Amino acid sequence: MTKRSVFCIFIVFAMVLSACSAPTKKMQTTESVRAAIMRLEKMTGNVSVFEMGERLFYIIEKMRLYSGYSVRTEAESSAHISLDESKVVQLDEHSDVKIESGGSDILLSLSAGNMFFHVDKPLQEKESFQIRTSNAIVGIRGTSGFVVSKNQDESTLYLMTGKAEITATSPVTGEIKQETILPGERVTVYKNEPAQNEEQLRIVKDTYTEKDVLKLATDYLNQHDTLRGQFEAETDFDWEEIFDDDDDDGDFDYDDDNY
User: Fold this and answer.
1) Within a 10 A sphere around the Cβ of 136, how many other Cβ atoms?
2) Using CA atoms, how far apart are residues 110 and 135, in angstroms rounded to an integer?
3) CB-based contacts of 88: which residues, under 8 Å, 6+ apart?
4) Beta strand 78-84 with 185-191: parallel, antiparallel or unpaired?
5) What's the chain's average pLDDT?
6) Does residue 163 surpass a pLDDT of 70?
7) What values do phi and psi take at 31, rounded to 5?
8) For residues 107-124, average pLDDT
9) Closest listed residue to residue 149, CA positions, set 170, 171, 134
10) Rounded to whole angstroms, how far apart are CA atoms 4 and 152?
């Protein structure tokens, strides 16, 4: 075989190798922007997972969730999601949330229903964790609480521990309103239609009582003594007024304090 023939064979081999490796590189690039730490830890009842609007045919507990995925619960159903080792959320029945993650930023868009959240460790300076409803955005640093998205025009944040800030923007005037919220307080954002003879954007802050705490929150706190103690200390609430030991339907059975 001549040197020229060997050289030609080498060129052809290099071209084939380059062509084969190109799709792999693109796939790795796509994978790199995915959040590799989020999981559907537990679920009860009828739960669905969607990728870019397409319903996944087969879902199981502990399955990985990626940026762009949505989780939806039906009647008498719940879903427990870990975002990493220190951030968890739990969906109530008739709830729908979309997960968006990039680098150290996480955005959860709650389009319907109720969602409990807990951030065990304060976020680093470059981290961000936000919950968005139809009319507000909640900035979370190291807190726990729950969000109720009643409809497109009304949503409420209940804070249980820590501190959070809620921001609302009028879709008509662009007016921005902010409110800082502390444990035992709640903030409701109302968005009125322009035809109504009221402010187009209202934020109402007040306090809530033991009876207002959602069951999905009490289920979680009842199995996490440290967080429950922190909640009682920061709100002065009486736990016995909140948790009913006889009502355990739909409870999650957590294995340890990691979730």
Assistant:
1) 26
2) 10
3) 41, 80, 81, 82, 117, 118, 259
4) unpaired
5) 82
6) yes
7) -65, -30
8) 94
9) 134
10) 72
